[in-house]
Design a protein that fits this description.
Blueprint: H1 2-38, H2 44-64, H3 68-87, H4 91-110
Helix pairs in contact: 1-2, 1-4, 2-3, 3-4
Length: 130
């Protein structure tokens, strides 16, 4: 039951990031660019696409379960930074991001489980990724 629960948790945490990444890469970055320009970034369009790519790859890593610990920590930190930067004026949105971060950090501690890519124990070159 433990491994099945981890698959469900990985799906609930990873799929939204896959969707958000795809939406940003397919033209949704336009909504993100003004906020990035306000931060003073030199090329806000590039960073908007980079954010979409990172969300897509991070979500895929969580869903397939490898490298779930690294992706979970990075996405958890991403949720905290995004929550503070973009949603601090809306307590509901801020708490949503904090809650997602907590889920990612819990997943990082629990690991991917055996129902994942490499059954949770990669070998060869992949064994060097945390």
């Amino acid at each position: 039951m433990f491994d099945e629960g981890l698959v469900i948790a990985r799906l609930f945490l990873g799929v939204p990031f896959i969707v958000w990444g795809i939406l940003k890469l397919r033209g949704g970055e336009a909504k993100l660019v003004p906020g990035l320009q306000a931060l003073g970034l030199p090329d806000a369009v590039f960073f908007a696409y980079l954010i979409g790519f990172c969300e897509l790859v991070g979500g895929l890593a969580v869903v397939v379960g490898y490298p779930v610990r690294t992706a979970s920590v990075l996405l958890g930190l991403w949720c905290l930074v995004t929550g503070y930067d973009a949603h601090r004026s809306n307590i509901t949105e801020l708490l949503k991001n904090v809650t997602m971060a907590g889920g990612f950090f819990a997943l990082a501690v629990a690991g991917a489980g055996t129902i994942s890519l490499f059954r949770g124990v990669p070998t060869g070159l992949f064994a060097y990724l945390p």
